[in-house]
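Researcher: Next entry: Phytoene dehydrogenase (Lithospermum erythrorhizon).
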Amino acid sequence: MYQVGNVSALNSRGQDNVFKLSSSKRWGKCGCQLGARQPSLLSFVGSDSMGHKLKIPAATVMARPRKDMSPLKVVCIDYPRPELENTTNFLEAAAFSASFCTSPPTKPLDIVIAGAGLAGLSTAKYLADAGHRPILLEARDVLGGKVAAWKDDDGDWYETGLHIFFGAYPNVQNLFGELGINDRLQWKEHSMTFAMPSKPGEFSRFDFPEVLPAPLNGIWAILKNNEMLTWTEKVKFAIGLLPAILGGQQYVEAQDGITVKDWMKKQGVPDRVTDEVFIAMSKALNFINPDELSMQCILIALNRFLQEKHGSKMAFLDGNPPERLCMPIVDHIQSRGGEVRLNSRIKRIELNEDGTVNSFLLTNGSVVQGDAFVFATPVDILKLLLPNEWKDIPYFTKLEKLVGVPVINVHIWFDRKLKNTSDQLLFSRSPLLSVYADMSVTCKVLLFFSSLLL
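Model: Predicted structure:
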């Protein structure tokens, strides 16, 4: 049995047996030779230097045989990167990020940022681009936050969750381009695949034809699928969506106070549409049910998917996120004079007499001062650290209405390839499980492994 998750193609020390086929060279990505590269100071150097070792009692797991693994003949299908650079949203994102570099400050600021997830890393990256000096603090010894990953004693990676990059993410797509790592995204066929609970092992697809522009490609995908929704349900759903299509962003923002389930009833959309499609979509977007999720979240996604030809096209990262995505951002920050400090957990926010922030006191006793301070952490962490002097300020009282959503991520190993999976993200349509993927199929670095569900 083999690990579920992505194995880095950059640093395979201690796991050469994974990539060796019949020579002493390291191989990955369907047999393409991997060039050697010295890890950065913050890299995962051969073991768990950026992640806690995952300790599992030996009695509860079976050893994963490696010597018996036989090479598989795998045919790789590479779908080309979609043409995103000419879309309005991408051009706006690119212009916005480029604007940070146009006017260097007369007096650069030391800006302290709490949290080295993607939010904190990208904040530090663009502050460094603007000529300031970011000091990024991460409580743990691993980068990535919600995209963090850990290495076990066998050298296998365990990821925090299953991560997908849509074409409708202009800021993230622009970030990949600025870092020169567009080739690390593995684009999949333009379709959405749903499991069929009544027919185990079978799937229903919504295929978006490349020859049609948006929104015609999305309309065609819905009309051609007759396995999940009847024609009557499709028509009623389309009529229900008309106000959102005609009302634009103003209408979308006005739906924040209504749940998905209530909005569907209000628009006369049959309950079966929610059960068949929007339970899966709600859980995939925010990990909560349609009777709790704001319809605004769904409409934002639908609007992007319907208005942008490649908005719903998906890509997987070609390895573990800390090395393949986070480290290039760290390198960029450090090259511009910024700092990234791991194992720097904040104990208290120290205030000045006027209530502004003076410094961050860390649990190791050190004090980090700056000209400005940013929190890029989950809301629950900010709630715990919020100074008493701030709790009655109207802006911060709103935090009480924000509640974090606990998420469980499951890795399952199989001792052979599964027959009924797909090179795609799969929507489970289960009340419990949102999405899953066979990483031994979707991630080229893992093609030589047995099936791995994440």
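Model: Note for the record: The chain has two domains: 1-50+60-190+313-377+410-454, 223-309.
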